[in-house]
Amino acid sequence: MDMQGKENTSAHFVLIPLMAQGHMIPMVDTGLLLAARGVVTSVITTPLNAARFKITVEEAQASGLPLRLVQLPFPCREAGLPDGCENLDTLPSKELIINFFRAISLIQSEVEEYLSNLEFPATCIVSDMGLPWTSNTAKKLGIPRLIFHVSCCFSLLCNVLVRRSEVYDSVNSDDEPFAVPGIPHRIEVTRAQLPSNFAMKSSMKGLRDEILESEAAAQGIIVNSFDVLERGYAELYQKTMGKKVWTVGPAFYGGPRIPRNVSRGRKASVDEEKCSSWLDGKEPCSVIYVSFGSLARFSFEQLVEIGLGLESANHPFIWVVSERYKATQTEEWLGGGFEERTKDRSLIIRGWAPQVFILSHPSTGGFLTHCGWNSSLEGISAGIPMVTWPLFADHFFNEKLVLEVAQVGVGVGVKSASVWQDETPGVSVTKEEVRRAVENLMDRGEEGAARRRRVRELGEKAKIALEAGGSSYANLNNLIEEMANRSG
Ligand code: UDP
């Protein structure tokens, strides 16, 4: 295997991400890692999504990496979606989620045609778990297929163990805690915190079952995480799944040959210079960065409560206010005194933030996050402690990893999962709870110092994992070799 990044004609990996930011970003990052090892890597996507990653891929190509984007049309109209609705973050309402997955399954025949006509046949398919039809495609064309998970082994394992044991049936109410069975830590959750796929409406249940079947049929699983952070859960997850699990992250760290863009996934809505000089003007570790990822929405009342909590916490902050909120009402409120009152210590980013850049700046000292796995991993890898505010999906399990296993955060105190994209008026976390959690996190006392020490150590270990000889580096080599040998 050529580790210098020259084209390795023995392997061609075809990556098929789900069209959502939290899925595409880590898949493209992993594509960059593969290409930097000389593996020919093709990422299949659609025009809108390709446009978002164009600069990243062009820069990679300019530095000689064999990475390319393959664009297939996305059948919006056929699936009953508005034109241009090619990513989950452009979905106008959650009711259209079924149409979105229908559109994704409609590209199967185009993907198969592409795979059948390749001059350099695919060595393996790396498919997001949300595209179960890739299992039939792989079988039909005789290509090995791996699943790419956008969560950590700890959360994936908790999910499997809770589902298989049906332990949630042993409690009397949605708020009664039960312990995740079969793991070394005592981790308690409630039914109200479980990912929605435990109680799915029948329309989505079919998809959930297909996803589980297609996962069972896969030859292995790739996870964007690193072994030290997983504390033995990578091995346990591998044993439980009965198939190989490769932890290859944090993929966004890249490597010496991979060009770094400030904007990942989308063009940042803030000028890099402005963001950088704003941060330069703050004390080391003094700024709290607040973001809820690419999909979350809150009620207007909740948004206000977050703002007031940040204001009263009295620390400098960067707050990403997504354009998904009701723009006029939000703007009126921000402009109606809030921005003026906090102007000496706030930077409000409307839209998309250069998150990894902000987290890696020495002035950043805390991260209020919704516990999406990418954000959690990015925070930990940057050595930044976190205030955890889980919303849905795997967020609650990720929060357990952050708070109880790694012990690098402070919980804001959310008790139950919210419904994705639910903007029903009301407040689930008060400004007082936001203030308390932020102050607790930024605390200069012994507890805060110990937390910072632990997360900094993890951040250093994250880098080491990706360097030559590190666990993720070795796992990626091992994965490439195993796939190349299979096809040979
Ligand atoms: N992200 C970003 N800027 C933003 C919001 C998100 O760069 O303003 C990136 C973030 O760094 C992460 C991804 O988008 O890589 C979000 O993934 P995550 O799993 O944290 O949350 P999701 O969006 O899937 O809920």
Task: Describe the protein's architecture and organization.
- The protein is of the alpha/beta class.
- It has 2 domains: 8-72 and 107-255 and 468-487, Glycogen Phosphorylase B (Rossmann fold), CATH 3.40.50.2000; 272-462, 3-Layer(aba) Sandwich (Rossmann fold), CATH 3.40.50.
- It contains 18 helices and 15 strands.
- A 7-stranded parallel sheet has the order 3-2-1-4-5-8-9, with helices on both faces.
- Helix 12 links the parallel strand 11 (317-321) and strand 12 (346-350).
- Helix 6 (153-165) packs across helix 9, helix 11 (300-313) runs parallel beside helix 12 (327-341) and helix 11 runs parallel beside helix 16.
- It is globular.
- The two termini are 13 Å apart.
- Residues 21-22, 25, 264-265, 291, 293-295, 320, 352-353, 355-356, 372-375, 378 line the site of uridine-5'-diphosphate.
Mean pLDDT: 93
How many whole angstroms does the radius of gyration measure? 22 Å
The CATH topology annotation of the largest domain reads as Rossmann fold
Strand content: 5-15%
Structural class by secondary-structure content: alpha/beta
Largest sheet: 7 strands, parallel
Strands side by side in the biggest sheet: 3-2-1-4-5-8-9
Q: How many discrete structural domains? A: 2
CATH class of the largest domain: Alpha Beta
Bound molecules: uridine-5'-diphosphate
* Dominant shape: globular
Low-pLDDT parts are 1-6
Known CATH architecture of the largest domain = 3-Layer(aba) Sandwich
- DSSP helix count? 18
Distance between the termini: 13 Å
* Quaternary: single chain
CATH-wise, what's the superfamily of the largest domain?
Answer: Glycogen Phosphorylase B
Q: How much helix is in the residues?
A: 40-55%
Q: What is the number of beta strands?
A: 15
